[in-house]
Amino acid sequence: MMKRTIRWDMWKAVSLFFVILFLLILVYPLFGVLQQSVIGADGKFTLAEFRKFFSEPYYFRTIFNSLKITLAITAVTLLIGIPFAYFYFFYEMKGAKLLFIIAILCTMSAPFIGAYSWIMLLGRNGLITKFLREALGIRIGSIYGFNGILLVQSLKLFPLVFIYMNGVFKNIDRSLLEASENLGCTGLKRFFRIIMQLSMPTILAAALLVFMRAFADFGTPLLIGEGYRTFPVEIYNQYLGETGTNYSFASAISVIAIIVTALIFFLQKWITSHYNFPINALNPITKKKAKRLPNLLMHLYCYGIIAVAFLPQLYIVYLSFRNMDGGVIKDGFSLGNFENAARRLLGRSMQNTLLFGGISLAVIILFSILIAYLVVRRKSIINDTIDTVSMIPYIMPGSVIGIALVIAFGRRPFALTGTALIMIMALVIRRMPYTIRSVTATLQNIPISTEEAALSLGAGKVKTFFRITTPMMSNGILAGAVLSWVAIVTELSSAIILYNNRNITLTMSAYVAISRGNYGLAAAFSTILTALTTVSLLIYLWLSKSEDIKL
């Protein structure tokens, strides 16, 4: 009787590894959230917490508030970002490189920093508010509530639309526009009938990204929302609120948040499927010079938007060098705020930020490369499931991830709460989808014949993967890595659930200082964080020799 030889397949082992990993660090924690939401104190099944949420208008209104503000933010970012990208790509703009860098920097800061800065500018005693009131007798509307959240988030997130649209415009063939022009379709008609239709899948993808970012944001509505309560803020209040906590109710709200975001995600997927067509630029579009008045208006629009969007970060840097006493600005400049920060956990915050971020990014890059290869080159039901499960955190508020990890790993046999490991786990789970999507998209454009040629010349599968395939994915890896890195160092919503003084980061230090009214200290932490993200972007642009960040 012949013995059957069992051949070891590395990629099957990798698939099994990710199945076990995601079951442990994602599915199991989320099941814990579901379990806590439906199991009462007596250990029996109950829907009491869900009935409480939907029966009391105060809580139910948070759904409406979150959807209302998020839809408004999405609409405004599209209205700002699409014309911005169109002017930038189709016409010659002076200082285009600078415009691009500043636009990206606008979206790379922690959201709550923008909220804090706008409070200092347009709050009840803000710099601009006081000037208009005392010098000109003009009283402006409140920055707090719906309007404030809309302002802060729209100015922060419109560059995401710009990045997406800049990428799709590069794939539009010039001959299509020339043909439409010969048929009499020009100007605005051509823009809406040709360019917008060709760009619709990308517009929907950009809208989804903005929607998910805005819906999951915790810091902005907490700082500037005041009475305008949103989902993530209510989850935080129920879990860590000062007036009392209800873990079961927080879990119930988390389950509702997951359902709502999943429905939005699948709705976007369904709509996108109706615009499923490839475009490829055999004849790339060349920029043209606009006439004097249109050229002036385009420059005023683009630089005006950028100036307003970047103003909060500039003002934070300015405040960091001013003498301040709590929230009061005094005469003179000094390094006092930075010296105060150095005495208040600056060293530990920077060390933790770089250490946690570095380890998380290394894990993300490795996992993303392996998952992308499984999805693209080793198609199977299991690998497609791994890809789908890995994207779940993309559509979930960070506070839900934080609560899920605390429930799963807050007691024996794991008991990881308060450790660096649980912080790194949260960062990897939350920010890996960016790199996975970027690397997957790059690998899909690499012909498999290259790998087949290496194998035919005697290179093994492992050697071909690491020596041939991985280097060819470098652009996608780099683009995804920089997005994941910036998101890691500015992470707040999950970190606020998991942090303590031992594992505090720069973002958390800035937030804690703001919450305690120590604005000078907060400005110093925020300035250092801004400098870190700026350096990250410049390193990426230098390494990639490109203006593109593919999302």
Description:
Helices cover 73% and strands 2% of the residues. The chain contains 25 helices and two strands. The chain has helices spanning 10-38, 48-55, 57-90, 96-107, 111-122, 127-135, 146-169, 174-182, 187-198, 200-216, 219-224, 231-240, 247-273, 292-320, 336-343, 346-377, 381-390, 398-409, 420-444, 449-456, 461-472, 474-489, 495-498, 506-515, 519-544, and strands at 322-325, 328-333. A two-stranded antiparallel ribbon has the order 1-2. The longest helix has 34 residues, at 57-90. It is globular and about 65 Å long. The termini are far apart.
Count helical runs: 25
Net shape: globular
Helix content: over 70%
Largest sheet features = 2 strands, antiparallel
Order of neighbouring strands in the sheet with most strands: 1-2
- Radius of gyration, Cα only, in angstroms? 25 Å
Question: Could you give the count of β-strands?
Answer: 2
- Head-to-tail CA distance between termini: 56 Å
- Low-pLDDT stretches: none
Strand-residue proportion: under 5%
**Overall mean pLDDT:** 84
List keywords for this structure.
mainly alpha, two-stranded antiparallel sheet, 25 helices, 2% strand
Q: Topology, pairings included?
A:
Elements (H helix, E strand, L loop, with lengths): L9 H29 L9 H8 L1 H34 L5 H12 L3 H12 L4 H9 L10 H24 L4 H9 L4 H12 L1 H17 L2 H6 L6 H10 L6 H27 L18 H29 L1 E4 L2 E6 L2 H8 L2 H32 L3 H10 L7 H12 L10 H25 L4 H8 L4 H12 L1 H16 L5 H4 L7 H10 L3 H26 L7
